[in-house]
Amino acid sequence: MEYNHQLRIAGADCRGDWLIGHALTQIRGVGYRLASQLCEKAELDPEMRCGFLTEEEIQLIEDVLLNCTAFDIPSWMLNRQKDLVTGENTHIISNDLVDILRLDIEREKKTRSYRGIRHYLGLPVRGQRTKTSGRGGATIGVSKKKMKQK
């Protein structure tokens, strides 16, 4: 078996000395639970080191990742459920995920929804407290009074 120190899987660099389940989390849009499902559907040992993967196994992982619904991965694990445009359940990874999230935020701003307004103002969107935390800008500490000279 040939060992690779650095692998390129779905547009992300994965270290060869990591376990497959952990190395797949380096792909944007893939968490540990989805990585475990990918290993199960591709019939790979998740305890194997990523550096020992062959080209065929890497291609199989990418195929499963790009066609999650075809490989019976549950729809609740996918990051794009009931898409507004297509109405389908899909899983989006890497730079596509960044682009679609940006478009979603722009759509919310354009429709002037509550979340869009919070994004526009730079405030927390998901209901966090704002009285003491989440303050932006430079901190102004307590200033010391200057003593007058006689």
Q: What does this entry look like structurally?
A:
A hairpin with a 2-residue loop joins β1 and β2. It is flat and about 85 Å long. The termini are far apart. It has a two-stranded antiparallel sheet. It has helices at 20-23, 32-41, 55-66, 94-110, 114-121, and strands at 6-9, 12-15. The longest helix is centred in the last third of the chain and has 17 residues, at 94-110. α4 crosses α5 (114-121). The chain contains five helices and two strands; from the N terminus they run ββααααα. The model has no long low-confidence stretch (mean pLDDT 89). The chain has 150 residues and is mostly helical. It has a domain at 6-74: Orthogonal Bundle (Helicase, Ruva Protein, domain 3).
SSE diagram, text form:
Blueprint: E1 6-9, E2 12-15, H1 20-23, H2 32-41, H3 55-66, H4 94-110, H5 114-121
Antiparallel strand pairs: 1-2
Helix pairs in contact: 4-5
